[in-house]
């Protein structure tokens, strides 16, 4: 029996969802109610391509729970940006539905939509999108100005956000005086200033060099521990996806190939395409003990370890003779028993040939 996580056992309320979403570029299609579309989706996508159109999203459905980090992962051209634009209604899908807190987002008025974007959604982009003529303080306070907050109030809130991303002392700097990582921290502070329920991040760390990128990922996880936002995070980097995600949706040619936790993708890939992706990550660094503990494992030992620890963190103990562990549930990770033999078997099945740590 596969181990199950506590997150699956106790689903939280759905913050945002989409169902049977299609976005088609090219000559316009009439938006119609097509209940049968999903069933014939492959044939319909082919028809669209043959008519010279680009089906950028093909029958996409998923739900994001409150407080979850939901990562959308795919190669260039797979439809990630199109999807985030449809979820925020920057563009409109031809078919399907998007619901925010249960409300049909495709039926709200333009005015209501602006209010939702200003008050409920935060967005961070790869290119930072800062205003060069405004200081750090001015940039972070800007969305609050759009909300109509008085100056003293918006500056006070902006200062709090600047402190949250550890940029206090740089309030009066202009974007060009900051490093890439610092500029992205300003972008993050600005998007958080409106205290969004739903936080969209579109490849936020892709422009940063690998060391800074990893540091920003750590800071992002640290922020999320404190803020508990609902997050839709886009990346083309599977290692980043596995580090950050509660669940990952893998997109290929506009279609969702698999949705699952990093462990699901590594241990139970839906097809060779997903398996090829996850071959690029180190299972020891991604898998947690709760992901692979079993209800019963005869060889497991009495030593207690927490379910949220990485498999990597046990390797020393195994190398020095530990034969097994009792795994305690921790956070969203379940507990159980885990033998050293099982750990080594799983790493043997899913390990890579090279020395890359996959982080
Ligand atoms: N405005 C547009 N008009 C026509 N085709 C488009 C448009 N925008 C995107 N596409 C096409 O839709 C498909 C999905 O593009 P999208 O930008 O969503 O992919 P992506 O996964 O975000 O790629 P990247 O990682 O390179 O940003 C691609 O085939 C792209 O060429």
UniProtKB/TrEMBL annotation:
Which SMART domains has this protein been placed in? AAA
GO BP terms: response to osmotic stress
Gene Ontology molecular function: ABC-type quaternary ammonium compound transporting activity; ATP binding; ATP hydrolysis activity
What is the similarity comment for this entry?
Belongs to the ABC transporter superfamily.
User: What assembly does the database describe for this protein?
Assistant: The complex is probably composed of two ATP-binding proteins (TmoW), two transmembrane proteins (TmoV) and a solute-binding protein (TmoX).
Keywords, alphabetical:
ATP-binding, Nucleotide-binding, Transport
Stored InterPro entries: AAA+_ATPase, ABC_osmolyte_uptake_ATP-bind, ABC_transporter-like_ATP-bd, ABC_transporter-like_CS, P-loop_NTPase
Reactions catalysed, as given in the entry: a quaternary ammonium(out) + ATP + H2O = a quaternary ammonium(in) + ADP + phosphate + H(+)
Q: What is its EC number?
A: 7.6.2.9
What Pfam families would the database entry show?
ABC_tran
This protein is called Trimethylamine N-oxide transport system ATP-binding protein TmoW
UniProt superkingdom = Bacteria
Family annotation (Gene3D superfamilies): P-loop containing nucleotide triphosphate hydrolases (3.40.50.300)
Q: List the PANTHER family.
A: GLYCINE BETAINE/PROLINE BETAINE TRANSPORT SYSTEM ATP-BINDING PROTEIN PROV (PTHR43869), GLYCINE BETAINE_PROLINE BETAINE TRANSPORT SYSTEM ATP-BINDING PROTEIN PROV (PTHR43869:SF1)
Where does the record place the ABC transporter domain? Answer: 32-278
Task: Supply the enzyme class, top level.
Answer: translocase
């Amino acid at each position: 029996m596969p181990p199950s996580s506590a997150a699956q056992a106790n689903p939280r309320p759905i913050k945002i969802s989409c169902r049977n979403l299609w976005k088609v570029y090219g000559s316009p299609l009439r938006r119609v109610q097509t209940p049968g579309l999903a069933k014939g989706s492959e044939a319909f996508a082919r028809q669209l391509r043959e008519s010279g159109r680009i089906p950028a999203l093909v029958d996409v459905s998923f739900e994001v729970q409150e407080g979850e980090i939901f990562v959308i992962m795919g190669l260039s051209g797979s439809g990630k940006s199109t999807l985030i634009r449809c979820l925020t209604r920057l563009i409109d899908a031809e078919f399907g539905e998007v619901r925010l807190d249960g409300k049909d987002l495709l039926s709200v008025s333009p005015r209501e939509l602006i209010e939702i974007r200003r008050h409920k959604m935060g967005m961070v982009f790869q290119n930072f999108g800062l205003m060069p003529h405004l200081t750090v303080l001015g940039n972070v306070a800007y969305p609050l100005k759009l909300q109509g907050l008085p100056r003293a109030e918006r500056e006070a809130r902006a200062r709090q956000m600047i402190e949250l991303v550890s940029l206090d002392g740089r309030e009066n700097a202009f974007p060009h005086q900051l490093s890439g990582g610092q500029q992205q921290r300003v972008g993050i502070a600005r998007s958080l200033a409106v205290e969004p329920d739903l936080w969209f991040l579109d490849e936020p760390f892709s422009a940063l060099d690998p060391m800074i990128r990893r540091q920003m990922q750590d800071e992002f996880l640290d922020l999320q521990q404190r803020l508990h936002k609902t997050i839709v995070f886009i990346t083309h980097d599977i290692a980043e996806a596995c580090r950050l995600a509660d669940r990952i949706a893998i997109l290929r040619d506009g279609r969702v190939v698999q949705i699952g936790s990093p462990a699901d993708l590594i241990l139970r890939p839906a097809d060779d395409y997903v398996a090829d992706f996850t071959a690029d990550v180190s299972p020891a660094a991604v898998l947690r003990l709760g992901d692979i503990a079993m209800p019963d494992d005869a060889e497991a030992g009495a030593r207690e370890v927490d379910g949220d620890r990485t498999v990597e963190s046990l390797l020393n103990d195994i190398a020095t003779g530990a034969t097994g562990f009792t795994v305690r549930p921790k956070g969203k990770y379940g507990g159980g028993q885990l033998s050293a033999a099982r750990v080594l078997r799983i790493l043997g099945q899913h390990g890579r040939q090279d020395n890359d740590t996959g982080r």
